[in-house]
Design a protein that fits this description.
- The chain is α/β, with parallel strands linked by helices.
- The structure holds 5'-O-[(R)-(carboxyoxy)(hydroxy)phosphoryl]adenosine and zinc ion (ZN).
- 5'-O-[(R)-(carboxyoxy)(hydroxy)phosphoryl]adenosine binds next to helix 6 and helix 7.
- The site of zinc ion has 5 residues, from helix 5.
């Protein structure tokens, strides 16, 4: 019997257990995180080591530096996550790990650790798609939330509208054709001289400011569910550069608030249209930008008017963490489809891959 056949058989046994415990690992970008999750919904531990202070000096994530720091962090974090959950490796049923999307060098650290543990312990390896992990963050926050629902994924690397059919079937309705919304927030913040990661600073500086500027005249993808952020991002950067070249003052708060309104309104109108066309009465937010206060407020209002139930995870589950990987990993384990030990890290990944 091959390793994979043996692991499939193990999964068949594990899925009959009342309690299934997963050790989850996330290292796709600049957060190293290890969690222990029970039955996909209960977080027993979720340890996150952020490298933001290291990358801030460079104005963004330096992939090689991220990989090296993941290497330093990963084993101590596995120990801490187990200790905090009051468990040992023997109590773990399977190991879930982010396979992609992300920085390949960074992903490899988590993936190699997970593979080594699975090989040594003879336990199933569950390969997780990072985007699905972000969606599953909501399963941790809302114990009664079940598919089907519409999901708006807004993170530093992804922007997409996804129909979550069930726990393992996802349908892509629309996605960014170029930059992700979080990347646009971070680049706009950078041109305004705000420290990395700038998204949260743009949000804070926009509070209480009435937006007056308009950067793009029309959305070329208005009739589609696809989105583009490179035009808006470039328009803001050009606007700021032009003022600086003319020695004119940049009203940082006004630029923040105006950019934020345009970036968010573009998305919210499309996601509401998607809910209506696909007859979805539940909308779920996921990813780092789901922490944005204007996005939350706008969707709160729109969902109330359209009688749609809105879910967004608490801030700590919006950004990268391993607990979300453990949640979706549980549902993948139930479908008995473990990964081989020969899988590699993927910089980009289709929604239904992994
Ligand atoms: O999901 P995430 O941790 O990373 C990826 O998987 O990409 O998202 C990080 C992104 C960054 O671009 C960060 O600036 C943005 O989320 N972000 C925000 C806010 N908080 C985090 N953007 C706008 N407003 C916020 N409050
Ligand atoms: Zn993420």
């Amino acid at each position: 019997m091959t390793y994979l056949e043996r692991m499939k058989q193990k999964c068949e046994g594990i899925r009959k257990q009342k309690k299934i415990t997963i050790l989850a690992i996330e290292s796709s970008c600049d957060e190293t995180s290890v969690a222990v999750v029970e039955n996909g919904r209960k977080v027993l531990s979720n340890i996150i080591s952020s490298q933001i202070d290291i990358h801030r000096h460079f104005g963004g994530v330096v992939p090689e530096v991220a990989s090296r720091n993941h290497i330093l962090n990963i084993i101590p974090l596995v120990d801490q996550a187990l200790e905090s959950a009051k468990m040992t490796l023997n109590d773990i049923d399977a190991i879930a790990v982010t396979q992609g999307a992300g920085l390949v060098g960074a992903l490899l650290v988590g993936l190699t650790t997970a593979k080594a543990l699975c090989f040594a312990l003879d336990k199933p390896l569950i390969n997780v798609n990072h985007i699905k992990g972000h969606i599953a963050a909501n399963f941790l926050a809302f114990p009664k939330l079940e598919p089907p629902f519409m999901c708006l994924i807004t993170s530093g690397g992804h922007t997409a509208i996804v129909k979550v059919v069930d726990y393992v079937h996802f349908e892509l309705i629309g996605s960014t054709q170029d930059d992700a919304i979080g990347e646009a927030f971070d680049k706009v913040a950078r041109v305004l001289g705000l420290e990395y990661p700038g998204g949260v600073k743009v949000d804070k500086l926009s509070q209480g400011v009435e937006p007056k500027l308009k950067f793009i005249t029309h959305d070329v993808l208005a009739n589609s569910y696809n989105i583009s952020y490179s035009g808006l991002k470039t328009a803001v950067i050009n606007y700021v550069h032009q003022l600086k070249q003319n020695n004119e003052k940049v009203d940082v708060k006004q630029v923040c608030a105006s950019f934020q309104r345009e970036a968010v309104d573009m998305l919210t109108s499309k996601v509401m249209r998607a809910c209506s066309e696909y007859k979805m009465d539940k909308l779920v937010l996921a990813g780092g930008v789901a922490a944005n206060s204007y996005l939350r407020k706008s969707l709160d209002k729109l969902c109330k008017v359209n009688k749609i139930q809105l879910f967004y995870p608490p801030i700590e589950f919006c950004t990268d963490n391993a607990a979300m990987v453990g949640s979706i990993g549980y549902y993948q384990l139930l479908s008995c489809d473990p990964a081989g030990l020969d899988i590699s890290a993927l910089a980009t990944i289709d929604l239904n891959q992994a």
